[in-house]
Design brief:
Layout: H1 12-19, H2 25-34, E1 40-43, E2 49-54, H3 55-67, E3 75-78, E4 81-86, H4 90-100, E5 115-117, E6 122-125, E7 138-141, H5 153-167
Antiparallel strand pairs: 1-6, 2-4, 2-5, 3-4, 3-7
Helix pairs in contact: 1-2, 3-5, 4-5
């Protein structure tokens, strides 16, 4: 995976895939030809779902997906949030998987809420040719085919749990007693 400072741009096949989520795909493509840096609002639920995380936590999820997992589908940054594009149906299933993992209980302060956008929702996405201006919306992993691989809810749950573990060290052992006497037994026979 390239560094965070590098921006990827969607190829024409990726732009067509994105536009297919809109009500008028040809109009969206025409807009992008005229204004290649124009963000667009697209519907979720049929072509893709989107899991939105605060930028830093979303980047941790993305790092886990690429360093330890299967990689990711398209990923964008928009207004301080990381948008992870996911398989349709993910937005409906992921919240229950997170609840099953007791997401909000003992890790509530360390783990930010993930917003799941699916059927009936819409998201603003960067244009395929979004620039690299600081703070601008951009693609971290741009769509590059007509049918990009999209992770499902189980893969994103895996990435979220691992990202949370890097943010907060979770131990199954109780904290050490600071007043306990410690003896060096390494030289005992």
């Amino acid at each position: 995976m390239s560094s965070a400072s590098n921006v990827t741009r969607a190829r024409s096949e990726g732009a067509a895939w994105l536009a297919s989520a809109g009500t008028y795909p040809r109009s969206t493509l025409a807009l992008w030809e005229e204004r290649p840096d124009a963000p667009v609002v697209l519907s979720c639920g049929t072509v893709f779902d989107v899991v939105s995380a605060p930028a830093v936590f979303g980047r941790r999820m993305l790092d886990r997906l690429w360093e330890e997992g299967p990689g990711s589908g398209p990923v964008a940054v928009f207004r301080g949030r990381t948008l992870l594009f996911a398989a349709p149906g993910t937005a409906q299933r992921l919240p229950s998987l997170l609840a099953w993992e007791e997401w909000g209980s003992h890790r509530a302060e360390a783990v930010p809420p993930l917003l799941c956008h699916g059927t009936g929702d819409a998201v603003t996405v960067p244009a395929p040719g979004a620039d690299d201006a600081p703070g601008a919306s951009r693609w971290l992993v741009a769509p590059d085919t007509l049918r990009p691989w999209l992770p499902g809810p189980e893969v994103l749950l895996w990435a979220a749990v691992r990202a949370a573990r890097t943010a907060v060290r979770i131990s199954i052992f109780p904290p050490a007693d600071q007043d306990a006497k410690v003896y060096d037994v390494s030289r005992r026979r």
